[in-house]
Amino acid sequence: xxxxxxxxxxxxxxxxxxxxxxxxxxxxxxxxxxxxxxxxxxxxxxxxxxxxxxxxxxxxxxxxxxxxxxxxxxxxxxxxxxxxxxxxxxxxxxxxxxxxxxxxxxxxxxxxxxxxxxxxxxxxxxxxxxxxxxxxxxxxxxxxxxxxxxxxxxxxxxxxxxxxxxxxxxxxxxxxxxxxxxxxxxxxxxxxxxxxxxxxxxxxxxxxxxxxxxxxxxxxxxxxxxxxxxxxxxxxxxxxxxxxxxxxxxxxxxxx
Length: 256
Fold this sequence. Notes:
The protein is built from 7 helices and 11 strands. The chain is α/β, with parallel strands linked by helices. The strands form 2 sheets. It has a 6-stranded mixed sheet, sandwiched between helices. Helix 1 (36-49) crosses helix 2 and helix 3 (108-121) packs across helix 7. The model has no long low-confidence stretch (mean pLDDT 93). It catalyses: (R)-pantothenate + ATP = (R)-4'-phosphopantothenate + ADP + H(+). This is Type III pantothenate kinase. The active site is at residue 109.
């Protein structure tokens, strides 16, 4: 079994993978203050929930967009399993052709999602990842990573709206019943949820036009499942895209 770990700005997603089967998936909060010992204890407890002991883990692969947490996790994994982990970054074999001004600026999460999406869905592709930030990655018809866009995440937008205005309350991210809200909360919910869906529809149309060909749209990330049903375009929701991508990269770099 390999342990695949995706360290995001808000959550850490980890999964146990045997072959191509995801045996379990779990989440913990990202906290840059926690020590490696604290993360080690959390990892051990989470594995115990799924009846997994450290000796069952053959290897670990980690992708991170939070460098301080990555360092703590690398140490925690070594303490827990006695083995070093493979880190998604410069020098790793991805099989991905990148056409960017500075390829080293691309987040490891975008690389992992692209590898998985190309493998599962083919090219051309537009990959939507909705988490702390909302990103859209463009893969052209030849499977080349061509660029993308980065937008404020849904929760960031909501926090900015409620934090900067004196009379607007906090709201839940429920599906709005109509675009024209009849009260403050419904109006906010419409603006946040339908606004995110409309933004995706518009950006996807523009990016597809620049690609010059119709593209398959794949969505992942914790927020996507709330917004995808509100979009007018067809988006394929793939909750485990990151874990599948990490498994592919592990196979290409270690098992090969």
